[in-house]
Every structure is written in structure tokens, then in C-alpha cells.
């Protein structure tokens, strides 16, 4: 019975995570006119790695991210300029975030906050660097100038794209810390085993 309850809770958690991804993936949708939230994919993978820890959860989140992009391009007319052969690297970099999350004990603000913050910053920055450099390799800029313009490209986009992930992680850490104290989401109220 307990195993079935845990499966149900995991399915519900994955449903909420995917719903947050749909709302925040940055494409034009009904919510964009109300509030534009930064992409929740990286924080979702950290949460999945820390608390849910099962490969099928990471696979579901990664496939959902690809499906959301596909839907936005095919049905909403969002530009497909970022879909290059480099897009094939993105699922692997996403899985890397999930894998790193498995080595963190929790997202609570406690004595391990400095260690966890460093892990999040390094992992999110590395994921961004891998995804961005593979994308850059297939751009017209690279075809003309090679890697000489990449530092300027990094300077232009790194803060704009890494900072929102860190903002999400701060918000998520606050919610998980409050949850540890008040247990309003019981499934995530304890540290992983």
C-alpha cells in the first residue's frame, strides 16, 4: 500500500513539475500575457534528482521539454532558429542536471546551503555552457569567425540565461525550507534517504 501511495505522490509531483514547465517555457501562451516566468526546466531537473531520483522522472521531464518546444514551433509559430543539430546535445545536458541533483541532500536552507549553492551555480553554468557552445557552433557567426566571437556571445547571453535559473532555485529553496518547517507539501518535507 505504501509503495502505491509513493507512486501516486511521484506521479502527482511530476504532473505539477510538467505543468510549471508548460507555464514557464518562455513561449507565447495564455499565461504570457499575465506574467512571464523564466523557464522551470533546470530547477525541475534538480528537484527530480534530489527528491524523486528515478530515471523515468528525468526522462519524462526531458521529453516534456522537447514536446513543449515542438508544440510552440509547430502550432504557435515560434521561431525554430534554435533548432539545429546542437539541439540533440540539450537532452544530455538536462540529464546531467538530474544526475548532479542526485548528489545533493536537499534544497532546504540549512548548514549545507553554501555547498548546495555552489553545486547549483556550477551545474547550471556548465549545462548552459555546453548547450550554448554547441548551439553557437552551428550559427552563421561561427561559420564566419569561428570561436573568436564566442566570449562576446557568452558575455551577452550568460547573465540573461543563467540568472533566471538561479532565481528559480532561490525561490524553490525557500519553498522547500518553509515546507520542512510547516509541511504543506508532505511528500517533500523530509530529506532524501
If you compute it from the alpha carbons, what radius of gyration comes out, rounded to the nearest whole angstrom?
Answer: 18 Å
* Low-confidence regions: none
Span between N and C termini?
19 Å
Shape: globular
Description:
The chain is mostly helical and 193 residues long. The protein has one domain. The protein is 68% helix and 0% strand. It is built from seven helices and no strands. Helix 1 (2-24) runs parallel beside helix 3, helix 3 runs antiparallel to helix 4 (90-101) and helix 4 runs antiparallel to helix 5. The protein starts with a helix and ends in an 11-residue tail after the last helix. The mean pLDDT is 86.
Main attributes of the structure:
about 0% strand; about 190 residues; single chain; mainly alpha; about 70% helix
Amino acid at each position: 500500500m505504501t509503495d502505491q501511495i509513493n507512486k501516486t505522490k511521484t506521479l502527482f509531483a511530476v504532473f505539477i513539475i510538467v505543468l510549471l514547465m508548460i507555464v514557464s517555457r518562455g513561449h507565447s501562451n495564455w499565461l504570457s500575457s499575465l506574467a512571464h516566468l523564466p523557464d522551470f526546466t533546470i530547477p525541475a531537473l534538480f528537484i527530480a534528482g534530489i527528491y524523486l531520483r528515478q530515471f523515468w522522472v528525468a526522462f519524462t521531464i526531458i521529453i516534456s521539454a522537447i514536446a513543449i518546444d515542438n508544440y510552440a514551433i509547430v502550432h504557435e509559430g515560434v521561431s525554430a532558429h534554435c533548432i539545429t543539430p546542437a539541439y540533440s546535445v540539450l537532452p544530455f545536458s538536462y540529464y546531467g542536471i538530474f544526475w548532479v541533483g542526485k548528489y545533493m541532500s536537499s534544497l532546504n536552507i540549512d548548514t549545507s546551503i553554501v555547498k548546495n549553492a555552489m553545486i547549483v551555480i556550477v551545474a547550471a553554468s556548465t549545462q548552459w555552457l555546453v548547450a550554448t557552445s554547441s548551439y553557437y557552433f552551428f550559427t552563421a557567426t561561427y561559420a564566419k569567425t569561428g570561436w573568436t566571437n564566442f566570449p562576446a556571445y557568452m558575455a551577452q547571453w550568460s547573465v540573461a540565461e543563467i540568472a533566471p535559473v538561479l532565481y528559480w532555485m532561490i525561490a524553490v529553496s525557500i519553498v522547500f525550507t518553509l515546507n520542512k518547517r510547516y509541511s504543506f507539501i508532505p511528500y517533500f518535507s523530509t530529506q532524501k534517504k
